[in-house]
């Protein structure tokens, strides 16, 4: 059966990098008898310009009807002064909420060819391959009540609520254990159970769900220690699972271990396995339109899509291997360029991927 993919290029470098990922999808379409039906849609600032909304109803409808969504990036300075509801980022949040994409998967992989791009010593990061599973639709970012109130003495007080239901913890635990079962079978759950009751419950539920996965080794770590361990010895981790806010912070830290945000994909999944796939970086308005953005994070997002939503791990393996071969051949966009390598633009990098997938020498 054909799989429907909604392609949302978005803003800034979004259309440039998505075009290269689409080349890869089209390659597999022509090779394997059109398994993928591609549709495009509007999101972010470009959607606002055309329709007056950052997430048009039509886009949400198409997203609901798709098996997976490929997103470039949204945002740009020209929309920063709009009302919050109309800003490009609202389009992204609307999609996450509209599809109930509660599990955010952020791999941090360091290709050995790029080990010198990290600010950490090569032996600390070379060969790094960890996965952060972040709860994305609950916790303190969404908890009620929230706001700023004025106390009786006239002083103002800001407040947010950190709240997790057992069912919310359970479903993210299942996601983490299932992912670990396809990797090195180790899950480290990150919390602050010594101080926060809600993460005490988090720890309890993790333990309970772990009993259903006897082959997986579960450990726990306080978030302060986890941040330290991520920088000290990141290769000790296989899968890290954590709350929305802790995951937000730790996943950016893990991304920096690799030294190149232009190489890192991400996935956001719901209970049905439907997912939105996107690079972790933003719309990079400083380099938009110049043809120099690195498309690899978006191409690797297609690989994740094949693995986690479209049940095509063999295509994912081919894409991952091709990325390695292109790097081996010395192809580098400006963001990952080092002396002696071959500096190329966005579309040349995409073309090199297609050549390698075609079995050509580059
Ligand atoms: P950014 O990730 O867009 O850029 C940070 C730096 O990394 C810039 O110097 C940029 O040129 C570089 N960079 C990013 N992606 C690159 C790539 N593929 N190849 C080469 N270099 C790359 O972050 P920012 O500058 O803080 O934000 C710019 C805009 O993007 C803002 O409007 C922000 O709100 C938005 N944003 C969107 C998303 C998203 O769509 N998921 C995520 C983060 C930021």
Describe the fold and architecture.
The chain is an alpha/beta fold and 362 residues long. It folds into two domains: 1-102 and 270-362, Isopropylmalate Dehydrogenase (3-Layer(aba) Sandwich), CATH 3.40.718.10; 112-260, Isopropylmalate Dehydrogenase, CATH 3.40.718.10. Helix content is 40%, strand content 20%. The protein has helices spanning 14-32, 45-51, 57-64, 88-98, 122-125, 166-181, 197-210, 223-232, 244-258, 296-308, 313-328, 346-357, and strands at 3-10, 36-40, 68-73, 103-109, 129-135, 147-150, 156-159, 186-191, 217-222, 239-242, 265-269, 275-279, 331-332, 342-343. It has a ten-stranded mixed beta sheet, with helices on both faces. A two-stranded antiparallel sheet has the order 6-7. Strand 1, helix 1 (14-32) and strand 2 (36-40) form a beta-alpha-beta unit. The radius of gyration is 21 Å and the shape is globular. The mean pLDDT is 96. Bound molecules: nicotinamide-adenine-dinucleotide (NAD). The site of nicotinamide-adenine-dinucleotide has 22 residues, from helix 4. Residues 13, 17, 73-76, 89, 92, 261-262, 278, 281-287, 293-294, 297, 335 line the site of nicotinamide-adenine-dinucleotide (NAD).
